Amino acid sequence: MEKSLKRMATMNRMQVTGLELFYKNGYYNTSVDDILKELSLSKGAFYYHFDSKEDFFVQIIQNLLVRKIYSSLIEPIEGHEHTLDLIINCFEDALETAVHNEMDYGFLLSNFINEFNGRNEEVMKHLNEILRIWEVTLVSAIQRGKFNGHIDRHVDAEGVAVYLMSSYIGIRTLMVENTPSARKYRFMSQLRQYFKSIEVKQSSF
């Protein structure tokens, strides 16, 4: 039991460090030797836990990236409160984390999709699965808002989901450059305006 826990702790430490290096430098610019140097581990120790650099990255996707995306962008909108409020709060919190991240190189998921697209089908399959789950969750949330009478019934749930995903990825990219707090504020102001346009209009009678 103790051996098993120690092995899990070692693997987790390796994956966290690997994710940081891949995020900062890119997958193809990070070698196994770079990872070992950062961790002060031998090659034997690395290959005891992982079959290859690709296997290492796929496990990072499954164990860390999925968890990060789920906790920041999926779980917060699965509640049964007012759908648009849930999404506003979700984006507000997720973007605020980026504002205070001094080592911010962009949105993890989109960074990796851009890097692997056309270069590695196996990795892209895992990354696209995260996108698919995020999209399905957003579509379900919008449909729930329509059902609960918060969102106009004529609204295209799939279209809104795609718009929200692309706008979030876009603002995360822009926030890397400069004045992230100001960019976040302007983006959230426009998002609130957009949500007003798809809400059910309250009758004045």
Give a summary of the structure in a few sentences.
The chain is mainly α.
Characteristic terms for this protein:
9 helices; mainly alpha; 205 residues
Describe the SSE topology:
Blueprint: H1 2-25, H2 32-39, H3 43-49, H4 53-74, H5 83-99, H6 108-116, H7 121-147, H8 157-177, H9 180-198
Helix pairs in contact: 1-2, 1-4, 4-7, 5-9, 6-7, 7-8, 8-9
Explain what this protein looks like in three dimensions.
- There is one protein chain.
- The mean pLDDT is 93.
- α1 (2-25) packs across α2 and α4 (53-74) runs parallel beside α7.
- It contains 9 helices and no strands.
- The longest helix has 27 residues, at 121-147.
- By secondary structure, it is mostly helical.
- It is elongated, with a radius of gyration of 20 Å.
